[in-house]
Write a sequence for this structure.
């Protein structure tokens, strides 16, 4: 009896790690979840506003932090039409080609048979103990910014929640580059010269204000998830590059309400977290058409581009519309018991696998921060983004509900490979820019 039970457990573990359950039909459902209809919640209609007066009626259509914020009158939520954010056909095709060939490794952070596309397009199953891990891999190898892109420029504003005072404004350029698993921009599928076997790199440069001008950040993420990221920081006033320890990525970045690990919703390794799938819901997420919004007039670019405007309590909330969308609720808790948080709850958009909403809890288990990343449709944004299939990160708000403070971000996202030459993702480039 004991022997049979052990065999059963081993079989269950093996099956939960397998990718063979995925089918061509799974791929279609994963990438086109609204082809047969969009989510519906009784009483919610396109064009309506959810506010403090009717928040209780629609509580189940919001994540807990958003409900509290609306109920308390911090913001009103305007409901937009649910639209399909189709990812690039080459990314979808890469997923089809690898269907049934990808599986989880024996240990957290290990994956087998992955080439390109979405590793696990099948619907997550609550009975699968590793379903959360599969969703995490789908995010890591997602089409967030495609093969390469830039946010140029990118404004951060530090705000007091009560007074709405803008305490500080920083101006950045952010650059993203995939070295491997590329599906659209040449070279495909990877760069020939990649001796460190990097998967992805992020390069950041501060442009303003003067006291932090030319501060630079460089992150190299290995293809091997069990290898720690290499992260370097260049401080202009010190005029030298220093390597950051793993613990420093969970410190406040340049005095903001977010840490390096928060970038893009989660900027860390799969193996740094335990992942738990908590279920599927239809809730409101910040998806919209940038060009259809009422935009800011204080930061207009030379080409006429206008950034998302902010309002609500403290000016901490983007003035955008929200869509009812299919969402996977994914919980991550740190493997390292010394980590400053107890867990994150990610509301993963089921079509794009972006992380537009994340709730962050302190070590006592209390809500600490409410993380919002607005997603703009690429066909209703800059002309160069049309047809790229990238769900464009367009605005953010990191709200520290305990400190009564927020950091907001306004993006000019550009899916343009010419802006991201491989040479800028090097320590040598940091030193050269710092001279």
């Amino acid at each position: 009896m004991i022997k049979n039970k052990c065999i059963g457990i081993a079989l269950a573990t093996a099956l939960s790690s397998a990718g063979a359950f995925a089918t061509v039909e799974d791929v279609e459902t994963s990438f086109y979840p609204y082809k047969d209809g969009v989510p519906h919640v009784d009483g919610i209609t396109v064009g309506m506003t959810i506010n403090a007066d009717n928040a209780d009626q629609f509580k189940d259509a919001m994540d807990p932090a958003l409900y509290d914020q609306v109920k308390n009158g911090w913001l009103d939520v305007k409901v937009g039409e649910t639209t399909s954010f189709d990812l690039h056909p080459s990314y979808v095709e890469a997923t089809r080609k690898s269907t049934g060939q990808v599986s989880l490794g024996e240990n957290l952070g290990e994956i087998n048979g992955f080439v390109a596309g979405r590793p696990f397009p099948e619907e997550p199953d609550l009975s699968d103990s590793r379903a959360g891990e599969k969703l995490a891999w789908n995010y890591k190898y997602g089409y967030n910014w495609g093969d390469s892109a830039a946010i140029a420029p990118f404004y951060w504003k530090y705000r007091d929640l009560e007074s709405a005072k803008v305490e500080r404004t920083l101006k950045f350029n952010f650059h993203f580059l995939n070295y491997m698993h590329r599906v659209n921009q040449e070279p495909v599928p990877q760069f020939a010269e990649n001796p460190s076997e990097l998967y992805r790199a992020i390069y950041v440069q501060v442009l303003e204000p003067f006291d932090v001008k030319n501060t630079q950040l460089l992150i190299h993420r290995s293809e091997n998830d069990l290898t720690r990221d290499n992260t370097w920081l260049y401080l202009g006033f010190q005029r030298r590059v220093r390597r950051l320890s793993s613990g420093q990525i969970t410190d406040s970045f340049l005095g903001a309400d977010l840490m390096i690990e928060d970038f893009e919703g989660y900027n860390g390794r799969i193996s740094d977290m335990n992942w738990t799938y908590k279920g599927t819901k239809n809730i409101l997420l910040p998806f919209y058409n940038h060009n259809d919004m009422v935009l800011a007039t204080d930061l207009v670019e030379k080409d006429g581009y206008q950034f998302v405007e902010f309002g609500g309590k403290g000016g901490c909330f983007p003035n955008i519309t929200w869509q009812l969308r299919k969402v996977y609720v994914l919980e991550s808790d740190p493997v390292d018991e010394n980590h400053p948080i107890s867990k994150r709850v990610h509301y993963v958009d089921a079509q794009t696998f972006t992380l537009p909403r994340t709730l962050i809890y302190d070590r006592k288990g209390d809500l600490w921060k409410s993380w919002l990343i607005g997603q703009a449709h690429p066909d209703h944004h800059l002309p160069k983004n049309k047809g790229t299939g990238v769900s464009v990160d367009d605005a953010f708000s990191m709200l520290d509900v305990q400190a009564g403070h927020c950091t907001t971000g306004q993006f000019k996202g550009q899916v343009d490979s010419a802006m991201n030459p491989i040479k800028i993702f090097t320590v040598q480039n940091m030193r050269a820019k710092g001279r």
